[in-house]
Sequence to fold (477 residues):
Amino acid sequence: MQHQSEILSPTTGWALMAILSLLWILLGVYWGRKARDMDGFMLAGRNVGLAFGTATAMATWITSNTTMLAPQFALQLGIWGMIAYSTAAFGLFLFAPLARRIKDLMPSGYTSGDFIRLRYGRTTWYIFLVISIFYGFTWLISMGMAGGILMHALAGIPYQTGMTVILLVCVLYTVFGGLYAVIGTDYIQSLIIIIGIVVVGVAVLYSIDLETVYTDLQAEKPMLLDMLLPASIMAIFNNLLFGIGEVFHSNVWWSRAFAMRQGVGQRAYTLAGFFWLPVPIAAGFIALTSSSLGVNITSPDMVGPLMAGHILGQAGAVIVFVVFFCSLASSIDSLLAATSDLIVEDVYKKMVRPGADEKRTRRISVVVIIGLGMLAWAVCMPRIGTLATVLFFAGPMVASTIYPIVLGLFWRTASPQGAQWAMLLGTGIGLAAYFELGWYTASLIGASVSIMVTTAFAWWRPDQFDWKRLDESKTGA
Fold:
């Protein structure tokens, strides 16, 4: 086995990082000029069309977790692990009809928190905000870590430096242009990602022998081919529910539902799901070739960039660097914008200063975006665990919100008490499973508890909710 170090020279890595950083900042400032009011800054004027809507959803979902965790899943859990990560596409597929429902019921809404507050009351809203903001910050940390890991694995750039640059770049152009800048850069990033993945995929298929890969795996790591490996089977259902929970509760996706034109949301999310589905399978397959090619993987979450760079050489490593940088930026900027919207709209404007004007609100938004970036940077400085262990800690929390949100949108009898206890018990019992059984069980258990509790309360203490209460433009709530 050879010990694999960086694929690109540090000089090339620094040059690529500088060019991409400058490009995204300039594009962000260019598109951000449209953000003349808070509707423009937070929701891109509520006029996003199908092409931009599909591109931003797909690019946002192709995160560091897709390009780096999917190979890690394959390396640790085998074929089922690779497929398990692809089930996250169902988060986009299933959110598609919800996006249409959200737009119909809340044409003037801003955040996912608005829905929980109006549908279930303030107590459930407080619980939801804690879960959603904590998850958003956990996701931000995982992507900051991935930026540092990527720069170090491909070009030998120190972890702390790479992590700092990717966070700083995204903070800068998000501050300048809000969701306009985010969606505009996402569009370009999605095109680069698709082209890069196609080029890498074709090159990999031509450079390896599938029969040799299978023979080597069967001889050295037969469990990766075991179709009945319990942990892998559990990971499929766990990741499916985690992916659905991530999308259903997160303001990243609700803000896009509010931002898209009437009738666009359902089609955009459906198309984004189809475009995203093959990406983690392609990324995960690369990891299974590591034994055949004799590459020493020193850390599971580095397998993606190391293997792609090893197979494709210098030119391929440049493509991989660009694709991974774009996938990171397209998610970090979306998360910064959506999480700041949640904090500003739900915490600042609803709790701290309800009468704040647009000028003051815009200033607070900028402060919050910068603050989120700085806090994530501080937490990421000492690298903690692997991407999977960091991200999946929030799994049972977000999984506990799935059923309260779905029933709350379609079932009048879903009650505030049921939503409260579903989130609390689902989170608590799911976290216990995370520590006692393993991270690959936590979301499954958290979601199962939440489903039972929400359904029981809907039958035992049913509500009779009036859907008109969700449209604050008419109720004046």
Observations:
- Residues 133 and 389 are 18 Å apart (CA to CA).
- The longest helix spans residues 303-352.
- The chain has a mean pLDDT of 84.
